[in-house]
Give the backbone structure.
Amino acid sequence: MSVSDAPMRPALPEGMFILTGPGVTAEVGRLPVRGDLAHIGLAGRCFVPHYAVPMPHRVDGGGAALHNAARADADEIGALPAGAIFDVLDIAGGWAWGQYGEDGPVGYVPMSSLETP
């Protein structure tokens, strides 16, 4: 039996992308965009070199802290409960950058606190 992740994947934008004005702005930490990467859902609204399709991961049984940088001593900006789905957009150095929920906080979580659903 095969399991599909189609219900968890966002619809990919179609057609030509044209930036016609200023980029999207939002409260810091709530929009999955950095200088080098953004959520694929922001294509056509934010100009960055790369766009990523989110890779859903489940927070393990111990929960996880959401940090504002990929370091253990970085400020904690929130807590993710055990079993929560965290949409990973980038992985580097043992840390995942992504977003909790569709419009939740954006930050870094240790990969050791995440598992694939």
About this structure: Strands lie at 37-39, 50-52, 55-59, 64-67, 76-80, 85-92, 95-100, 106-110, 114-115. The mean pLDDT is 86. The two ends are 16 Å apart (CA to CA). The longest strand covers residues 85-92.
